[in-house]
Each structure stands twice: as structure tokens, then as C-alpha cells.
Amino acid sequence: MLRLRWHFACCFVLAFLAVSFLSATASETFPFGSALFLDSAPLPGSKRIPMIEIQENGTAAFNLWCANVSGSANVDANTITIMPAKALSVQCTPDRLTRDTSLLTALMQVTSWQRHGDVIDLIGATNLRFRVATN
Q1: How much is the pTM?
Q2: Continuous H helices in the chain
Q3: Of 67, 70, 131, which Cα lies nearest the Cα of 99?
Q4: Are 112 and 79 in contact (CB under 8 A)?
Q5: pLDDT for 44-54, tens place per residue?
């Protein structure tokens, strides 16, 4: 009888954990319309951190180290395709232009995404971590 109670208690705990896990992962949807900031410190002499914002209709805005670029994104359950439009001509230092080009290239190579609370990982040739603005 004691063994049966132990078995029942274990099954109950496992069922509870499974329901908790499934409800937690179901709520981890893509944060459309939210500002996503690159998990990086600003460059010396600047407060700017790259930010992307993707709307449900697929329009996207990319505020990079220097330039601002529009584009589009296709987001599904766990896949993502990002297509920036041609960058505007801006007056930037060569270092920032190189960083902008590298970041745009990395964004175009992203194929999937994962969310863990306020952290969004974009996975591709170069993995990029963004944080949802919570203010």
C-alpha cells in the first residue's frame, strides 16, 4: 500500500510539472511591436545600443550602431527570416559602419528564435541575444 501511495505521489508531481512547463512555453510568444535591444554595451562615446522592432504584419525597423534601416521579417512558431532594405547613406565613423554591416549580415543569416522571459535569442551563423524593453 505504501508503494502505491509513493507511485501515485510521483505521478501527481510529474503531471503538475508537465502542466506548468507546457503553460510556460505556450506563453513564450514572439514580442511583436516591442523594442528588442541587442545584449551589448554601448560603444565608447555613445549611449546607442542597436534595437530592432518587428510588427505582426512583418514590417521591421532596425536601429543599428549608426544607421536606421527598415525592412521586413517573417516570424513563425520558432523560425524567423529577416530581410533589411537597403541602408540609408549616413555620416558615420568607419568603425560604426563596419559594425552596422556585420550586424545586418548576422540578422539576415538568422533562421530561428527562442524566447526565455525577456530574452530573445536569434539563432543563425552568428547567434544574437536581444532583450525586450521593459520600461
Answers
A1: 0.77
A2: 2-26, 94-108
A3: 67
A4: yes
A5: 989 999 999 99
